[in-house]
Amino acid sequence: MGVSLADNDDDDDFGETHEINVTPFIDVILVLLIIFMVAAPLSTVDLPIDLPTSSATPQKKPDKPTYLSIKPDLTLAIGENPVHRAELIGTLDGLSDMSKDKYVFLRADRSVPYGELMGIMELLRSGGYSRVKLVALEGAPGVPAAGAAQP
Fold first, then answer.
1. What is the pLDDT along the chain (151 residues), one digit of tens a residue?
2. 139 and 145 in contact (C-beta within 8 Å)?
């Protein structure tokens, strides 16, 4: 002998819910939090910096890397062979193991002005070599490079 206190109307099987679903709101807030946590360190600039030394973990070198060096007297060399600035792209194109989708490893002396370094990078980009990696000396983590100013 069972007694039902609810109405037996078939129209109200799925009644309206008057509660707000906050799960999507929490998901959006968590995504924004992650974005800000990643982006905040990238937006800070620590000056002054010393570029020639890096404490980054060394990456695996390719079998035959192509090194482009800028010497202190601003002359260029591909590997050990000197090359004139006007002939740089032609010389890179003439290398048998070089293609436009391979990395060019750019080494610059500490005394090379930043404008000269950017000029060489622009020359490489205009020649179709947009994959450039900068080479630095390995330094110990937490140890500033020689000549770097302390904040």
1. 555 555 555 555 667 777 888 888 999 999 999 998 888 776 654 433 334 556 666 667 667 788 888 888 888 888 888 888 888 888 888 887 777 888 888 888 888 898 999 999 999 998 888 888 887 777 655 455 444 444 3
2. yes
Q: Please, what's the largest Cα pairwise distance for the chain?
A: 103
CA 78 to chain centre: 25
- How many CB atoms lie under 10 A from the CB of residue 104? 21
DSSP codes joined into one string, 39-51: HHHHT---SS--T
The single-letter DSSP state of residue 78 is E
Write down the H helix ranges in 21-128. 23-42, 88-94, 114-126
Please give the structure tokens belonging to residue 40. Answer: 């905040």
Q: Which are the contacts of 19, defined by CB distance < 8 A and separation ≥ 6?
A: none
C-beta of residue 123 within 8 angstroms of C-beta of residue 88 = yes
